[in-house]
């Protein structure tokens, strides 16, 4: 006999809500993936050098960090879907206006707004997926992040198609804005999942192990920094090793394709009793690939494929693990995405400095160091959590 909770999760209304979050994440993936391919066109129309236009990445990262802190507080205090709609409107305006701007300063402002709204939608959907599915959330969260990868994969193809049809990048941005507009109208008619902490006066004061939470924040920061570093620098690494530029660019697509496929494969594996085993398997495969990359003992295409696979389940597993051992409210979810934004700024920058001064071998070495820190931190977190439960 199904429990009342399980029965409530299987209603058509519930599944409509879940699919809505998945579609929002496809749009978020397109928002996140469009900046890179559009960068040369934005640089040309704003008369900016490539070093100047790179400021857009900093503006987006700052929007991510500030947006994660602000939106986390908002999701605790107000109706979640109303906040999603507000951030959706900001994202729509940003996508409509950004491709027409001819000033680098204005581009930075609107890319900041896009980063702010993007991370707010991201944090909100993750949080409300937990509210909706409770202990059954992990597979749905993995599917959520698969949708992000799907959006990031298809947007370069859409941009190429729109350039072929209209010879401008505006249409690709506007298509994402239209998709966001439709899904925001759809979510307007759906109730926000119940916040399990709503009956508490102050959800942020609920007791939790701050050392364990700090360990989680560091894990999220290191993981996303590593993911962004590999995706952002693998093509440069390949060209430094003598690979043709076009062939090197394909490595980025291979990485995102493998990462997205891995998240789909991981859906049935995301169960609380498998979290530790799944993370250990991912880390073991990742370390193996970086060692092969450092010693140049395998095809870079194969290494990229398997490294993407090793990265695929880490974020959804960490998020599911966090929701399992610590009650995640809006504020704590916001802090997680602040850590994500910080890692996305610091680690790729460090990789660029090391590549310039130490050459291509510094990339796998840096990632190995990050993996070592993650393994040590995860060990601390699990040992600390075990000891806490025994007290």
Q: Approximately how much helix is present in the residues?
A: over 70%
How many angstroms does the end-to-end distance come to? Answer: 35 Å
N-to-C series of helices and strands: HHHHHHHHHHHHHHH
Based on Cα principal axes, name the global outline.
globular
Q: Which segments are poorly predicted (pLDDT under 50) over 5 or more consecutive residues? A: 1-8, 201-205
Q: Structural class, please?
A: mainly alpha
- Judging by the overall fold, what is the CATH architecture of the largest domain? Up-down Bundle
- Amount of beta strand: under 5%
Characterise this structure:
This is MFS transporter. GO terms for molecular function: transmembrane transporter activity. The chain crosses the membrane at residues 20-41, 53-71, 83-116, 137-162, 168-188, 211-236, 248-267, 274-295, 301-321, 333-351, 363-383. With 391 residues, the protein is mainly α. It has two domains: 11-193, Growth Hormone, Chain: A; 208-390, MFS general substrate transporter like domains (Growth Hormone, Chain: A, Up-down Bundle). It contains 15 helices and no strands. The chain has helices at residues 4-9, 12-45, 50-53, 55-77, 80-97, 104-133, 137-166, 170-188, 210-240, 245-266, 275-294, 300-312, 314-325, 330-358, 362-390. The longest helix is centred in the N-terminal third of the chain and has 34 residues, at 12-45.
């Amino acid at each position: 006999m199904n429990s009342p909770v399980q029965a409530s999760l299987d209603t058509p209304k519930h599944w409509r809500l879940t699919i809505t979050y998945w579609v929002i994440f496809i749009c978020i993936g397109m928002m996140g993936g469009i900046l890179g391919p559009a960068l040369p066109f934005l640089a040309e129309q704003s008369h900016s050098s490539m070093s100047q236009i790179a400021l857009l990445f900093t503006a987006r990262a700052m929007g991510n960090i500030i947006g994660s802190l602000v939106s986390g507080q908002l999701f605790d205090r107000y109706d979640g879907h109303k906040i999603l709609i507000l951030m959706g409107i900001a994202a729509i305006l940003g996508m409509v206006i950004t491709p027409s701007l001819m000033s680098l300063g204005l581009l930075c402002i609107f890319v900041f707004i896009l980063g702010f709204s993007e991370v707010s939608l991201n944090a909100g959907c993750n949080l409300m997926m937990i509210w909706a599915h409770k202990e059954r959330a992990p597979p749905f969260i993995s599917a959520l992040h698969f949708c992000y990868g799907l959006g990031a994969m298809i947007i370069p193809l859409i941009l190429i198609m729109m350039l072929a049809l209209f010879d401008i990048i505006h249409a690709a941005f506007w298509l994402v804005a239209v998709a966001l507009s439709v899904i925001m109208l759809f979510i307007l008619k759906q109730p926000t999942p119940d916040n399990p902490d709503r009956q508490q006066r102050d959800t942020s004061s609920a007791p939790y192990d701050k050392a364990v939470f700090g360990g989680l924040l560091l894990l999220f920061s290191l993981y996303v920094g590593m993911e962004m570093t590999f995706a952002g620098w693998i093509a440069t690494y390949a060209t430094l090793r003598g690979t043709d530029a076009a062939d090197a660019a394909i490595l980025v697509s291979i990485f995102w394709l493998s990462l997205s496929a891995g998240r789909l494969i991981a859906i049935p594996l995301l169960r609380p009793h498998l979290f530790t085993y799944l993370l250990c398997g991912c880390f073991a495969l990742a370390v193996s690939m970086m060692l092969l990359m450092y010693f140049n003992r395998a095809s870079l295409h194969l290494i990229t494929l398997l490294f993407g696979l090793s990265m695929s389940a880490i974020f959804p597993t960490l998020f599911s693990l966090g929701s399992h051992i610590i009650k995640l409210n809006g504020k704590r979810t916001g802090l997680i995405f602040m850590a994500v934004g910080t890692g996305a700024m610091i680690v790729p920058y460090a990789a660029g400095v090391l590549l310039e001064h130490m050459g291509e071998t510094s990339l796998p070495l840096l990632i190995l160091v990050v993996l070592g820190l993650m393994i040590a931190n995860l060990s601390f977190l699990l040992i600390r959590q075990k000891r806490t439960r025994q007290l």
